[in-house]
Amino acid sequence: MADKVIDGFRALDEKLKLDALVHAQARRIRATVEDALRAAGLLDTALLQGSYGRKTMRPPLKDVDLVVVLPASLAHLRTEQGMSQWAFNGFRQAIEGAGVLPGVRFDVHEEAAHALQLTVPGVDFTLDLVPAFETEEAGQGWLYIADREQDQWTERSDVRRLRDRVAARNQGCGGVWVNQVRQAKHSLDHDRDVKGLVCGLLVESLAYEAITTRLTPQEAIVRIFAAGAQKLTGAYAGLAQEDLTAKWSSRDRAQVVRFFQQNQRFAEEAMRLEQGGDAIAAMGMWQDVFGDLFPVPEVSFAERLRTVSLVGGSITADGRLTTAPGNVRPGRPWRAVDREAGDAKLSPSFPHSSAAVPTMDALLDTPAEVAALMAAGQVIWGADRVVGRELCGGAAAMLELDLLPLPEAAAEGHLSERVRVVVTRKREVLVYPLGRPERPWRHRNDFHPKMLCLQFPGDDAALLWLWPDGLEPLLARVRMHLMCEEVYRRDGIWPGEELPHGRPENGVVWPVSSEAMRRAMRRWAR
Predict the structure, then answer these.
(1) Global pTM?
(2) Which of 27, 60, 83, 507 lies 20 to 30 A from 226 at CA?
(3) Closest among 314, 302, 346, 297 to 496, alpha carbons compared
């Protein structure tokens, strides 16, 4: 199953690569321009800069930045007036004179201070030529960059050094570092405001600091998000010469940090789900990070519900159903056939405790406070209109709430379910569905009290909710039961294993029929 997550990253990586034909077209145009400038005596060497040059650009290709280093024989003219504009004019004349790019136009979109922009008919990207001279510091990698607005060459660029550092890091990480940078950049597409604040070099800088050896894409993305959440709380230059966040307001900074913190949580949860054996849920989390370019196998909600019912798992803090171990034990619902068939209340006790918070005793002692915690989202996901109060002078307590449908259930038309949970000092638990009384029920008493039949008290302890397990696992079981009831109404098949109605003959509990549940019982044994 874990391989499915890797396959998802491979598919994402393929979609984030530049089109091979466009890449080849860019190489041809670059070579053509370099030949024309070299023939005119205006090029000594040339190097790519920007994300395209560092191989971290995502499609579509919009521009190719080419730094053109002029021959050292012209360096003495660098300080002369008008020399920067002379370089731009020389490039244009050389390209037009060579006739190698018919119909080429210059500076169509803008006249940038540092680059001559070439627009070629039939080509979707521009080629931006940046005139440069080597500095006097031979071998240090610095260049002087032309500025035609200021008519000067005093701005120094470390483009060559930056290129070499990124290339070395990518090689040291087994050649996958650039792929992981592209993935991290892509995550920005889900927040337009953050994307407008975070430049590509900032993401590369975070990745450069966070990833120093070959990692899986899952590990790498977690580290990049963690680095952003930590580093971007203040000024940050990274691989640049100046602070990459200098233009941010305090509000901008807070927004960016929240973005990285949230995605760090998503990524860490995805890894937890994968390690727990639920690749599909993990891929769903990664899709929350990367969007639809990250594929998720199509599995119906009913099938997911059936799997979790059989093997257990959890309902996560963001309302995701998963087989990763957590607050949902496997279970088998059972229904009494008449009042005399026996007590259908939940099993009262067991020596082990999960130390869940809040406890069932807390619900008995302070139902209103527990209800307030639930309404604040501190107990379970998707609790609404929560009310808690004492009954019978404190001998019992009641909790009423709406259980909102999990997102994947809501996508298939499931509605909210209102329930009433009654607990007593004798550790009895009764759960009643409220509203829409006309609905049929597979596992609910037909006689009063018409409570849900969540489990058979005599079943194996591995399959039971018990009082020490606490309120969160109880409500998770209730939610699972309600979702199974809705699936049964729609499909006519209970999504999981169920017990026959009525008591077993001679007191012998029916054996578990599913091999998946038998294996799960060993995992959940107590």
Answers:
(1) 0.81
(2) 60
(3) 302
In this structure, the dihedral spanned by the alpha carbons of residues 344, 348, 351 and 356, taken in order and rounded to 10 degrees, is: 110
Measure the CA–CA gap between 121 and 165, rounded to whole angstroms: 35
Q: Tell me the one-letter amino acid at 315.
A: I
**Residue 524 in contact with residue 463, Cβ under 8 Å?**
yes
461-507 pLDDT, tens digit per residue, is 999 999 999 999 999 999 999 999 999 999 999 999 999 888 887 77
Q: What mean pLDDT value characterizes the chain?
A: 92
Surface-to-core class of residue 413, CB atoms within 10 Å of its CB (0-12 exposed, 13-18 middle, 19+ buried): exposed
Angle formed at CA 457 by CA 455 and CA 458, multiple of 5 degrees = 120
Tokens of 105: 């136009």
Would you say 132 and 154 are in contact if contact means Cβ atoms under 8 Å apart? no
Q: Please give the backbone phi and psi of residue 504, each rounded to the nearest 5 degrees, phi first.
A: -70, 150
pLDDT recorded at residue 336 = 75
Residue 189 bridge partners (DSSP): none
Q: Is the pLDDT of residue 138 over 80?
A: no
- Distance, in Å, from the CA atom of 331 to the CA atom of 6, rounded to the nearest integer, reads 32
pLDDT at 6: 96
Using an 8 Å Cβ cutoff, are 498 and 320 in contact? Answer: no
Give the Cα separation of 109 and 92 in Å (integer). 16
